[in-house]
Amino acid sequence: MNISIELIATLLLIAVIVVMAMRRLKIPYTVGLMLTGIILAISPFPSDNIEITKDLIFTIFLPPLIYEAAIFIKWQELRRDLPVILTFATMGVLLSAGITAAGMHYLAQWGWQSAILFGILIAATDPVSVIAAFKEAGVRGRLRLLMEAESLFNDSTAAVAFSIALAFAMNESVTIFGTLQSLVISVIGGILCGLLVAGGVLLLAGRTDDHLVEITLTTVAAYGSFLLAEHFHLSGVLASLVAGLMTGNIGSLGSFTDKGRDAVVSFWEFIAFVVNSFIFMLIGIRGAYQDFTNLIVPIAIAIVIVLFGRALAIYPLSVLFSRSALQVSTGHQHVLFWGGLRGALALALALGLPPEIAQRETIVTVAFGVVAFSIIAQGLTMIPLLRKMKEIPE
Questions:
Q1: Among candidates 207, 317, 288, 252, which has minimal Cα distance to 45?
Q2: What is the pTM of this model?
């Protein structure tokens, strides 16, 4: 993204004004920011040199958002619901991807290669969209934990599955043993990278009482864990997630000073706001340049199939826990289904597809269509649904 400091400052000012207006109107600010991006793209505003890329989303935007969400998750609560979360984040993602791929192949007449790639990249719920929506709605308790933790964990499943599907599409040799080996190495390696970097950060944090140094160390944890894992072709998302969990839980026990903890919380809330502002405006700007004219039918099919796949990933899997202490209430299931927003993650994977992949531009455009529906339609109806389910006050 080759833009000037002046343009960045202007975009931030626009974002602040939009957020203030949306909160007065009681509309999710993510929706307002995306629509603002569209308006900027079709106006004389110099947006043609603003580009959203996989590297921008993955390397710059995703690590701090994953980390920021993880530092607020309590390990005791996560451990209790981990079986449910991992079931949704693994079996749920794979089931949803399979349903979507089959639907795009048989209903939209896509080739299996394109259908499988699209099914996987669109299957995972996006932590950027989900966490922003739930924070703004004021959701608390178990529902927020299930929704946010699932969206964080399922990124790793989608990213690993996507890399395997892409290798197959590029005619690289792929075997069942090799696939399982890659999965295990990516997951375990990502966890180890997160533990290693967070451990070093906590060790250093315990030797200083300077809150500015403590903030800097958490920044190193967020990006350092991600970049270290990605350097060795491991799960960067899982590394940042583990680093956030460690510094958020172990750090709260004494590695950080009282002033440092307050400063870290304020700092990461600010970073999350800034990154979210850029992401949703960039989605709107890039989406405005997509030509949806000849792809209305595939986009409509994709939206329906993605929602159907999400339903099958939530309701049947919730039955597995219906007779246990981990039972997921019907109301929570409804919110988990409709709150499975798609966003920047899906676009990053789509934009990262090699040019030689069949129907690449079609996949990218349809992904933008599904994401736009998700952010606008599902985003605007989330708060009414949460009120109906009595998860937030009237």
A1: 288
A2: 0.88
